[in-house]
Structure formats: C-alpha cells, structure tokens
Amino acid sequence: MLRLLGLGFGLAGAVGGTIGAGILRTPGLVAAQLQQGPLILAAWLAGGLYALLGALCVAELASAIPLAGGWYIYMRRAFGDRAGFSIGWLDWLGHCLGVAWVAMTAGEYTQALLPWLHSDPRLIALASLLLFTGVQWLGLQAASGSQQLLSLAKALAFLALVAACFLVGGGSDSPAVAAAGAGLSPAAGPSSSLGWGGLLLVLVPALQPIISTYDGWHSPIYFAEEFERPQHDLPRSLLGGVVAVTTTYLLVNLALLHVLPLPQLAASNLPVADAAAVIIGPAGRQVITALALLSVLGLINASLMSAPRVLFGLARDGLFAPPLAWVHPRGTPLPALLLTTATASLLVLLGDFELLLALSAFFYVALCGSGVVALLWLRLSKPQLARPFQVWGWPLTPLIVLAGSLTFLLAALVEDRQRSAWALLLIAAGWPAQQLSRSLASLAPAAPPAADPAAPAQRQPD
User: Fold this and answer.
1) What is the pLDDT of residues 84-141, one digit of tens each?
2) Domain boundaries, the chain
3) Element (DSSP H or E) covering residue 412
4) CB burial of residue 396 (10 Å; 0-12, 13-18, 19+)
5) Could you give phi then psi for residue 330, rounded to 5 degrees?
6) What does the angle CA 208 – CA 211 – CA 214 come to, to the nearest 5 degrees?
7) What's the pTM value of the predicted model, to 2 decimals?
8) Assigned fold of 7-448
9) What is the distance between the alpha carbons of residues 13 and 328, in angstroms, rounded to a whole number?
10) DSSP string of 354-380?
11) Are residues 58 and 45 in contact, defined by beta-carbon separation less than 8 angstroms?
12) Is the separation of the CB atoms in 275 and 255 below 8 Å?
C-alpha cells in the first residue's frame, strides 16, 4: 500500500463518512420524542460525546496496530484468525449493504432533482457505483482528492444553510414561520409531566437515531497503512472528525429551532427542507435535495474506498482468496474493489432498502462493540504492545462505549426481531464463507503475513 495520506484526508474521511442524508431527517424524529429545545440539543451533544468516547478507544487501537483491514485487524490481534475473519466478513458485508442503500438513495434524489431524466432510480444508483469505482481505479491520489473535495463541499453547504437560517430566517415567531406551523398544537415538554424514569424512557429511543446519524466517524482506520504518520495522524483524524461532525449537527439543530416552531419540527419528516422553504421559498426543497445528493455521494466514495481494504487485509493474511490481496501500482486494491462493486450492485437490484438500512446499522454498532472488546482484552493480554496513543479515562471510557453498543443491539433485537434475525443469519453465513475462503487460499501461496507492530524488528519492508 502507498503511504500518501495525511491529516487532511483523515478529517475528510471521518466527516465524509459520517455526515449524510440522516441529519436532514433525524432532527424531526428526535424533536418528536423530546419536545423541548434544551433536551433536543442535550441529546445531540450526548450522541457526539458517545462518538468521541468511541473515537478515543479506536485511536489507541489504530495507533498501536496501523494496518489495513479495519475492525478485523484488532479482533484478529486479540482473539485469532476465526474471530478476526468473522468481524472482517461482517465489516465488508455491512459496507456492501450500506453502500447499496446509499446508492439507491442517490438515485432517488437525482430523480427528484432532475425529473426530466425519466430513469429508474436503480439505474442511477448503478451508474453512481460505476462512477466512483472509476475514481478508485485511477488510484489513491485521485480517490483521496475526491473525498477531500466532496467533504469540503458538504461541510460548506451545511454551514451556508445554518448561516442562512440565522441571517435570513426571522426566528420561529416570524409571520412566515407562523403560517407554516399553523394548525399544529404546542409541544409539551416531557420533563414537565414525567420524572427521571419517564425522561429516560423518551431519551433512549431518541438517542437511537442520533447514534446511527453519527456512525461513520471511524472511516480513517481502514487506511491506517496508507498514512505517512499513522501514529500521529490517525488519533487526530478520529478525534477531530468527531468534533467537526458534532459541531455541525449542533449548529443544524440550533438553526432548525431558530426557524421552525417546535411542533412543526417534531411533525416534519424532512425538517431541513421545511426550514429552507421558509427562508428561500418553494425552491428550498430543491436546494435541500441537492444538498442531500451531495451528502450521499461523499458516502458512496468513502465506502468504496474503505470496503476493499477489508478484503485486502483478509486476503493478505491468508484468510480469503489470495488474488484479493493484489494492489495496483497506483495504490488501489483492484480485485477487492471490483468484488465490492459487484456485490453492492447486486444488492441494488435485489435488495429491500429498508431492510438494508436496518442491517447496516446493526452491523456497524456490532463492529464498534467488537473493537472495544479487543481493546479491553489487548490491554490485559498484551501490556507490552507499543501504544503511541492511550485512551483517556481508562477503563471507564471503553466500558461506557461497550454498554452503549450492547444497549443498542439489545433494543434492536427486541424491537425488530425479523430484521435482527436476518442480521444474525448473515453473520452466521460468515462461518461457511470462512471455510470456502480457506479452501480458495490453499490453491495459491498466501502473501507474507502483516507485520506485528509489537515487534518492529520483524516488520516486512513497505
């Protein structure tokens, strides 16, 4: 792998892999649960702090074991090949599910923005996958440059929207807003009638969509081997990315609370579009559709960069088909990229997209939990492992993150048993896939194993 990446790409990967269409819709769901401005902002801040705690945990792992492969690397280092492959399978499959859903979303937004195309959203989704596969084909420099450009454009667009809400929007008591919210009953805050126990009952469901909206901050870990200074830049990328995303989300919610009456915010399926309509007029929804399209395009690019690195790591360590470990001289794991694009395209053609979204969220939380488990075990079993960055607040920080992951997963199992059963079935499919992959690996000599960062003298040359 080429060592070309720096802090700029790390921040762009964290921001671009996190901020998507979810922030355009989720504020209404949260407002409907909490119904008070201070509680809404506190919930979004709590989600950001939870993501920051997770970033602190992952920063220690990424700086100690700066190898390509994502979550798989940490689980394998802690518990061996079988556990490592299971997490790698889960990670790659989760990326394929996620990118298929995001590509289909991009197709729907494009159709809404350009109705004269008269094209099936699935065809547009496939075209977007092929477009960004072509960008990856050009090499690491082209892929990383496009990610930085898309992330910067996305961040500037959201900041411009926030500024317009405060500068142009007259506040939630303006005539335009009053007319938009006419007929809606006033919101009654839950804390006015509920005790602490009741408050927790509404806070936990509100935090679930918030945590999903923060997902993606870990994107830089997939490129650990391609950073010029991974021990320094990976922790800064993870922590800086979470801070940037949290700031953006808080500003968006502040802007919405400034422009929209709380009852309208709580009743809206797309509150950012409603706010834009108040500020700009009927064209506001088109502006938000364009912003949503820009957001999901950055996610497609980030996912098509990350997922092949998982297959590359598995194949290089002899746990998957050896050809997937081949890297183009320009820095792209090309066979792994083509397999990822083909799988995502098949899911676009065959998938139930509500199911894809639910499964990908389940997988992402499970992966984060696996990373924390690996961190806890490595601290106990490998105290000699060099750790350029150590998690703050040990051991409370990883225990909080682990408890949050388990709570999210248990809630998903209880509330949506059918989709959770699909998730567990796909996880179980990793076991026969492991046997198949080892059979394929036996047909050709495996690439040299990755170096153990705990023993620098034995490292393979780059």
Assistant:
1) 888 898 889 888 888 888 888 888 888 888 887 777 888 999 999 999 999 999 999 9
2) 7-448
3) helix 396-415
4) exposed
5) -85, 0
6) 150
7) 0.82
8) Amino acid/polyamine transporter I (1.20.1740)
9) 21
10) HHHHHHHHHHHHHHHHHHHHHHHHHHH
11) no
12) yes
